[in-house]
Amino acid sequence: MARTLALLVVAIVASCALVQTTTAGTTHVVGDSLGWVVPLGGPIVYATWSVSNTFLVGDILLFNFTTGQEDVARVTKEAFLTCNSTNPITLKATGPANFTLDSLGQYYFIGTLDKHCILGQRLAINVTAYSGPTPSPTPTPTPAPRGPRNYTVGDKLGWLIPPAGPLDLFYASWAYNKTFLVGDTLVFNFLNGSDDVAVVTKQVFNSCNITSTLAVFNSTPANIALNATGEHYYTSTYDKHCILGQKFAINVTGHATSGSVPSPPPTAHPPSITISPSPATAHPPSIAVSPSSPAGGAQPPSQNTSAAPMTGGGRLYFGAFVVSVTASALYF
Ligand SMILES: *[C@@H]1O[C@H](CO)[C@@H](O)[C@H](O)[C@H]1NC(C)=O
Ligand SMILES: *[C@@H]1O[C@H](CO)[C@@H](O)[C@H](O)[C@H]1NC(C)=O
Ligand SMILES: *[C@@H]1O[C@H](CO)[C@@H](O)[C@H](O)[C@H]1NC(C)=O
Ligand SMILES: *[C@@H]1O[C@H](CO)[C@@H](O)[C@H](O)[C@H]1NC(C)=O
Ligand SMILES: *[C@@H]1O[C@H](CO)[C@@H](O)[C@H](O)[C@H]1NC(C)=O
Ligand SMILES: *[C@@H]1O[C@H](CO)[C@@H](O)[C@H](O)[C@H]1NC(C)=O
Ligand SMILES: *[C@@H]1O[C@H](CO)[C@@H](O)[C@H](O)[C@H]1NC(C)=O
Ligand SMILES: *[C@@H]1O[C@H](CO)[C@@H](O)[C@H](O)[C@H]1NC(C)=O
Ligand SMILES: *[C@@H]1O[C@H](CO)[C@@H](O)[C@H](O)[C@H]1NC(C)=O
Ligand SMILES: *[C@@H]1O[C@H](CO)[C@@H](O)[C@H](O)[C@H]1NC(C)=O
């Protein structure tokens, strides 16, 4: 996030003596280019947007939506978990709508129209700190030197559709904590013939429309050596597996030292919002018609070694940001 953006942002009058040093904040456009919609990828989309941002007191959330088609309500945690829009704390029906984060703690937002919340138009964030008066660009922490590691994807669970579904953020959580370096190996344990590992582009990853892959590994265990820095996206070509949450993205940020010093993986400090799987009402409807996977899992994909891991800027997302909103009607 460009903290420098803060310099462009108009001063926010802090309402409380505690935040007297907080005069300007970052504006976070919720969902970035996706805006505030019913996301095709379900609740995971804003959940992962949330954990990939850091929110400070004084920052602004900008909910970008079309008046009449969407709205945004700040609600209690309970109302967030149950998608209850009966008694919101605040409701803004005119888009785009700004919301200033004026204190530490958790904030919960939902869309109140139709089934929007249940389908994933909801956001929980954790405001974790006060911003200083002169926010400095946050340097990317350089990982501590260590030797190469083997990471078993999903640990004991292995590589499959996460049992609790996409809301569980299972693989996103698994990956979130970890530092990945060139020289490390991802070990995917799965059932031969029931799954595979597809290395895909960010676009394919976001849309779960698996029409092309960079590489497919269909023999278990698949040991994938991380051989380039940058973002890497993994899912399965099997029917609906991607949209049901069998996907994750990583950022390979450096190189493991050649002399393999056994050491535990340095743990980053995630903004520790926990989106717990919600009560039954909040589960996405069973996906009868999937807009994804025309490629399906029917044909066993061939091992394609022409892969070139992609590098690039931008942040990592785990949800579907690419496919248009109208496609989400397919969920009904
Ligand atoms: C809000 O969405 C509109 C339409 O998608 C877009 O043109 C505009 O740039 C967005 N605004 C921001 C602040 O992202
Ligand atoms: C929704 O919240 C209101 C009060 O905020 C409460 O009276 C009502 O019982 C809740 N509805 C459900 C279905 O939980
Ligand atoms: C929302 O905040 C942005 C950035 O701070 C500002 O440019 C915009 O005018 C604000 N919009 C409203 C409706 O307040
Ligand atoms: C990773 O696993 C492979 C094969 O199981 C093994 O040969 C290698 O020593 C392991 N590397 C590390 C760093 O544990
Ligand atoms: C991060 O890793 C620690 C152990 O290293 C684990 O206890 C914790 O649950 C992990 N958090 C997430 C969000 O995965
Ligand atoms: C999976 O199939 C490959 C051949 O396609 C075989 O080498 C491997 O041993 C199998 N693994 C298991 C666990 O059955
Ligand atoms: C919010 O962040 C604070 C500070 O990092 C942490 O102590 C708290 O547990 C977090 N709350 C949630 C719900 O994640
Ligand atoms: C999937 O991608 C292909 C090619 O990129 C495109 O032709 C097709 O329309 C897409 N399908 C959906 C449902 O978006
Ligand atoms: C990097 O690994 C991929 C498989 O993950 C492989 O297809 C590719 O050839 C490797 N590139 C290099 C330069 O070794
Ligand atoms: C990946 O890491 C590099 C260097 O650490 C950083 O410049 C880049 O912004 C990161 N990408 C993402 C998507 O976080």
Sum this structure up briefly.
The chain is 9% helix and 21% strand.
Helix/strand layout:
Layout: H1 5-8, E1 27-29, H2 44-51, E2 55-57, E3 60-63, E4 72-75, H3 77-82, E5 90-92, E6 97-100, E7 105-110, E8 122-130, E9 150-152, H4 170-176, E10 180-182, E11 185-188, E12 197-200, H5 202-207, E13 215-217, E14 222-225, E15 230-235, E16 248-255
Parallel strand pairs: 1-3, 2-8, 9-11, 10-16
Antiparallel strand pairs: 3-6, 4-5, 4-7, 7-8, 11-14, 12-13, 12-15, 15-16
The chain binds 2-acetamido-2-deoxy-beta-D-glucopyranose (10 copies).
One 2-acetamido-2-deoxy-beta-D-glucopyranose binds next to strand 3.
Structure description:
With 332 residues, the chain is mainly β. It is built from 5 helices and 16 strands. It has helices at 5-8, 44-51, 77-82, 170-176, 202-207, and strands at residues 27-29, 55-57, 60-63, 72-75, 90-92, 97-100, 105-110, 122-130, 150-152, 180-182, 185-188, 197-200, 215-217, 222-225, 230-235, 248-255. The strands form 4 sheets. It has a 5-stranded mixed sheet with strand order 2-8-7-4-5. A 5-stranded mixed sheet has the order 10-16-15-12-13. It is globular, with a radius of gyration of 20 Å. Residues 192, 219-220 line the site of one 2-acetamido-2-deoxy-beta-D-glucopyranose (NAG).
